[in-house]
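User:
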Amino acid sequence: QVQLVESGGGLVQPGGSLRLSCAASRSNFRIDAMRWYRQAPGKQRELVAAVTRSGSTDYADSVKGRFTISRDNTRDTVYLQMNSLKPEDTADYYCYAEGYTFVGTFREYWGQGTQVTVSE
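Assistant: Predicted structure:
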């Protein structure tokens, strides 16, 4: 079983920055894709950013140019640097990881979520 532990959320003013981190516990699991999702009150969960094991990235249009996803494969950790934050970025942010165990079984895991609030 892999646990994803997120940190870095909080309250920030519009225009400010936050950095989210998500660390995966060690296990017999090779992590391939890692992603950040978010869910605002009353809305569906949406993909924010994704990064492959080799470092290829993809972003939602709403965050392009403001958010940067990165990862450290040696620490099984993914980061989300969020700059120029807007009130509409307010949401619970969830880390996601997928990959294969050493015997070839596909697995996917979710973090518990961290709250980001952008407000005056």
